[in-house]
């Protein structure tokens, strides 16, 4: 290990002036140029998805208010009535070939992506939800692109067509329900199908997909607006 005493002797390559002093003006201008370049790339990315303007609509603002004030009627819905639950397929590292397809494993980070492969036998289409039932039990992610899911993951195929925002709404209640299961008590397919989660409903008891869409869209805009206002990028 590098002790502090050893680190004090390390040397760094830095830009210098003719007199041998560090060129701090150049360093500052270079870093500023990099930051501005990243900001421009980020703004172009957001613009390509229609988020040049992050102003909330009246209905999106109302959705945030209703949820924060507890004015949203929630009701339990059985998972098997909402999704067809499909168990992922095992793929060992020895049998993986590198590629561009996301491999979803039992991970709680990076949207569950643990590798990128070119294997194509058990590929699921995008716009689906993955839920880890073994390892990081209950971790739920929206997968926008085609993927292979490991046998530690369940894939949820919706019974009704969902938008990205509607799919994202399901992640929090799924994670909350999944946390009831420890590593020793896996959230297996058969158990998951019988479980239920709380969702917003209309007066007639049907799922309020419009509210889900507006609420998540509002959260997206708020997050993007904070990113744009920050100095992170």
Summarize the structure in words.
With 233 residues, the chain is α+β, with helices and mostly antiparallel strands. 37% of the residues lie in helices and 19% in strands. It is built from 7 helices and 9 strands, in the order αααβαβββββββααβα. The chain has helices at 4-7, 24-48, 58-68, 79-82, 164-178, 189-194, 209-229, and strands at 74-78, 83-87, 98-104, 113-117, 128-132, 140-143, 147-149, 153-158, 196-200. The strands form 3 sheets. A 4-stranded antiparallel beta sheet has the order 2-8-5-6. A 3-stranded mixed beta sheet has the order 4-3-7, with no helix packed on it. A two-stranded antiparallel sheet has the order 1-9. α3 (58-68) crosses α7 (209-229) and α5 crosses α7. The model has no long low-confidence stretch (mean pLDDT 92).
